[in-house]
Write a structure and sequence with these properties.
- This protein is of the alpha+beta class.
- It contains seven helices and six strands.
- It has helices at about 35-50, 60-70, 70-75, 80-85, 100-115, 125-135, 145-155, and strands at about 10-15, 20-30, 50-55, 90, 160, 170-175.
- The strands form two sheets. Strands 5-4-3-6 form a four-stranded mixed β-sheet.
- Helix 1 crosses helix 2 and helix 1 (about 35-50) crosses helix 3 (about 70-75).
- The longest helix is centred in the middle third of the chain and has 16 residues, at about 100-115.
């Protein structure tokens, strides 16, 4: 939804270097729907060429899958069928499994404490994510950037179910 107070769509791009250190390369979030969401998706795909996209909800999976297959929508954002066909997508259902999400967020803590993540400073979305990390409480709904981080981390650890066909999501993992 575009309404103020609605949940954000969040994209979290992660890079892994030769030593296995993880780097948040890019975070973006917004109240995107329809072609606006698809445009953000394609912009990130072009900029970072992620190997894998990870999808949270059934609704998002269906929404973006339809846009990926719709030539009129592709033309509206300047995407090509070739770009859309190179995408590997995995599903994680954190909305239905909030407890699993909370455990997943906590599972990343030792890596963060061991400095296995190299976090840049001075980027507003990364600062917002850091605030989500600092304010995290298992009794509350995690921030959207923090959920995106959890999903990226979970995919790096091998979680997720491959989705057959052309589909994409609002969450990304790039290696």
């Amino acid at each position: 939804s575009r309404r103020t107070g609605s949940a954000l769509s969040a994209i979290f791009v992660v890079g892994v270097d030769r030593e296995g250190l993880r780097h948040p390369l890019h975070i973006r979030s917004g109240l995107w729907v329809g072609t606006d969401l698809f445009r953000e998706f394609i912009d990130v795909q072009r900029a970072f060429q992620p190997e894998e996209w990870c999808v949270e909800s059934n609704a998002a999976q269906l929404h973006v899958a339809e846009m990926l297959a719709d030539e009129a929508v592709q033309r509206a954002v300047g995407a090509t069928m070739q770009e859309c066909s190179r995408i590997a997508v995995y599903a994680l259902y954190s909305t239905e499994q909030l407890e699993q999400t909370h455990w997943g967020i906590r599972a990343a803590a030792p890596e963060l404490q061991a400095l296995r993540w190299r976090i840049p400073k001075g980027q507003s979305e990364i600062e917002e994510w850091i605030e989500d990390l600092k304010g995290y409480s298992p009794q509350e709904h995690p921030g959207d950037r923090l959920k995106a981080f959890h999903m990226a981390h979970a995919r790096l650890e091998g979680a997720g179910t491959p989705i057959i066909g052309r589909i994409a999501s609002s969450i990304v993992v790039s290696r």
